[in-house]
Every structure is written in structure tokens, then in C-alpha cells.
Amino acid sequence: MTAYAARPEPKAATPLSSSAILDLVLTSLDDDKAEDIVTIDLHGKSAMADHMVICTGRSTRQVSAIASKLLDRLKETFRLSARSEGKDIGDWVLIDTGDVVVHIFRPEVREFYQLEKMWQDSGRAPVA
Predict the structure, then answer these.
(1) Exposure string (b/e) for 86-97, b if CB count within 10 Å is 16 or more?
(2) For site-directed labelling of 126, which of 34, 43, 52, 71 has its Cα 20 to 30 A away?
(3) Domains (ranges, CATH) in the chain?
């Protein structure tokens, strides 16, 4: 008679909604010490996403690390493989989850592009 180890039950994925993704994004950014986090509500203003999040990392290494951790958490929590650009360079990383678009900048790059100003009257809300 052969004994078999019990197969662990697969982890149930957390329900996928734009507000759940936004909550995870904001928690992840805060946990990884992102600075000057801004959320912009895009409901009814753009078809590209429901929310945009913009934040700053202090260095290229921190920007890349914040992005990597966020991508890992999205995959672990929602089984979501978000698209990303710029992680290898670390000046500006774009992460697109479909419902939430995240921009992680180095301070100088964020100042240069001033992305928030494009959406200035569209519900800019700083997150503490």
C-alpha cells in the first residue's frame, strides 16, 4: 500500500473589482514606502481605466522594487498578470491592470512630465 500526501486545496482568488485592485495597489505602494501617492478617479472621464495612481520612488532601484512587489502582489492576490513597461530602467514604470493604471516615477522624471496636471480637475485626491 502506498501513502500519498494530501494535495493542498487551491487558494481561492480574491474577487476581482476595480476598487479591490485599487485597494491592493495603494496598500502595496504604502508598504514599499512610495512617496506623494495620488489617485485620480477616471470613472466617466476616460474609457482607458477606472483609476490612475501616480507615485514617486527615491531612486531607480526603489522604483523598480516598488513595481516588482506590486506585480507580485497582483499575481498572488488576484492571479492577475498586469502589463508593465520601464521596470528595467527604473525612471518611470507603467503598470496596467486594466481597471487601474499605475505610474511610478523617479522625482525628476515626475516633475518633468507633470502627469497630474493633465487630469488636474478630474478628481485629484492625495492619499495619506
Answers:
(1) bbeebbbbbbeb
(2) 71
(3) 18-126 (3.30.460.10)
